Amino acid sequence: MSDWQREQSEPSRASQRWPISSTFLLLIAAFLFCAVWMLYRPDQARYLVFPLVFIGFVISLCIHEFGHAIVAYHCGDHTVRDKGYLTLDPLRYTDLQYSILFPLIIMALGGIGLPGGAVYINLHYLRRPIYGSLVSAGGPLGTAVVLALLMALFAAVPELPKTAPVLYAALAFLALLQVTALIFNLIPCPGLDGWGIIEPFMPVPLRNLGRRIAPIAILLLVAALFFVPGLSRWLWQTVFSACALIGLDARAAFAGLRLFQFWQ
To answer: Is 159 a catalytic residue?
Structure first.
């Protein structure tokens, strides 16, 4: 999800380049380490499901927020470079409470992925309404890229379910999180990217109202998904339809969710 901020940051010489952050590279290395360990020590694989999925979730969060930032950069807001948003550094996007703990709780309880990071875009440089829509769409596009990479892996290694069933279930659950994050985040609710895509074309009073109620609107929507049967049913029907469309094994994904919930 993407927040908006009008303040302009001062350019920094040190941030004129776009190097990939060492923190992001460490996340990639840790993810691959867990996957390789699960392949070579299948007797210990189930204990690595939680760290593998959690690290993969944070990586997907970085790519989601990078999607917002790179589109904003090409739409004219070069302050995203000075803020370090183009380095894929999770420390630039995340907040411990709202980016890690809250999404992790929702992910563990309901199997729903919530992109919890935020990039702050300088609206002064987005001179056309369509630019604001494109910036909001950049995040879901990043999530779709992660999902496409996982599905490409499943297609490239069709024997994975038999040779490494625990790893396959964990990766399937990670892919399911991308599906749920994509669908959830495209709901036109204030604070989500679905709202951001249509917001530039709304009347000014409605846009201002959406920005004021965005934090509480997201919390109410999450609560409704758990306590309003009709909304929950719609979400999961949409998720299952999307899984069937792209060929994602939903049964394996929910097996991965059960393995992820190591405390049960």
So the answer is: no
